[in-house]
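A.,

Following up on our hallway conversation. Structure tokens first:
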């Protein structure tokens, strides 16, 4: 972002390490969504309204619609209320408090309901689809079952890099050079290596080794202006090919989950870049739903700031200001088909 100093990036490129994972787990009670967007539409608005406090061995930074958690090892993650995207889209929702949980119900036009359960701070616990006959099918389960507590300290999973038996250009597909057939093949492909078990959404979000088991599409047909998360109308139409492929996948398997991942270039502070990237991911997810009818419940978003540069440069790079789409269903269910 122009006018902002470049951050000290030593040790940050590899994502969140295990030391930071424990700190992040301790800070889990401070998940975002406490403040709504509240009209913030520019980075300057967000930056000026950040509130920072110390909680245990993590620093909690709240901003409109997001919470950033920084561990003592200087690793950072960003979280948001998973139901806010539904509200921002103007969908027919109602919310109620049940004990320590918030339950938000989205009434779909076909009579089914999407039920999203979050904790008091907005962290997703579970999302399910309730059919008209009363049957309920879990889409996302974010509760860890291999530990004594529902919240866990270590959210980062370290795995060996998966062997790559396909050309790299078919592992990370550039949307600009791909047709709908290749995009559909990429976002429905099985894991490139066996998935050891089922993982929570948080584990998927913060574990690059785990996400690497799934092929992805770099949506390089959309590039953002520096310091902006807005998608211009002329670029929004370029999402049609992506949307058509996702629609086919969801029609085939209604419980599919796709993650829209946001990225920035290396200019600016890590906090600004993390916030920007997360908002870019949400902007694209909202367009996929609003303009192309992709069910909101089949999408989730996550920003990674400048951690995963497409072009290795510390300078201004439009190519690095992008989003990526990845199917994560097999990671959430523990499927191993290859």
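Then the amino acids I'd put at each of the 338 positions:
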């Amino acid at each position: 972002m122009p006018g902002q100093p470049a951050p000290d990036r030593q040790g940050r490129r590899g994502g969140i390490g295990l030391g930071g994972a424990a700190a992040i787990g301790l800070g889990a009670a401070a998940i975002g969504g406490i403040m709504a967007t509240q009209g913030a539409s520019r980075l300057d608005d967000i930056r000026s309204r950040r509130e920072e406090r110390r909680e245990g061995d993590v620093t909690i930074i709240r901003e409109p619609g997001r919470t950033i958690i920084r561990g003592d090892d200087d690793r950072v993650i960003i979280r948001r209320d998973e139901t806010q995207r539904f509200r921002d889209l103007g969908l027919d929702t109602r919310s109620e408090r049940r004990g320590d949980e918030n339950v938000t119900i989205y009434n779909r036009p076909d009579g089914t309901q999407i039920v999203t359960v979050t904790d008091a701070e907005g962290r997703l616990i579970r999302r399910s689809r309730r059919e008209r006959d009363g049957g309920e099918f879990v889409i996302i389960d974010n509760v860890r079952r291999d530990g004594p507590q529902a919240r866990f300290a270590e959210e980062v999973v370290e795995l060996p890099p998966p062997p790559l038996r396909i050309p790299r250009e078919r592992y990370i597909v550039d949307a600009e050079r791909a047709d709908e057939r290749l995009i559909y093949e990429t976002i429905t492909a099985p894991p490139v290596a066996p998935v050891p078990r089922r993982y929570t959404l948080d584990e998927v979000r913060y574990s690059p080794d785990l996400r690497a088991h799934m092929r992805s599409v770099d949506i390089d047909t959309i590039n953002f202006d520096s310091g902006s998360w807005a998608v211009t109308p002329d670029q929004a139409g370029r999402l049609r090919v992506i949307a058509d492929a996702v629609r086919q996948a969801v029609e085939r398997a209604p419980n599919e989950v796709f993650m829209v991942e946001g990225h920035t270039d290396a200019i600016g502070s890590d906090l600004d870049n993390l916030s920007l990237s997360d908002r870019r991911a949400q902007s694209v997810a909202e367009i996929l739903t609003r303009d192309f009818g992709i069910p909101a419940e089949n999408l989730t978003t996550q920003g990674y700031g400048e951690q995963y540069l497409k072009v290795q440069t510390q300078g201004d790079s439009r190519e690095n200001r992008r989003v990526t789409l990845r199917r994560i269903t097999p990671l959430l269910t523990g499927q191993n088909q290859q």
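Residues 1-38, 148-153 have pLDDT under 50 and may be disordered. Curious whether your intuition agrees with the design.

B.
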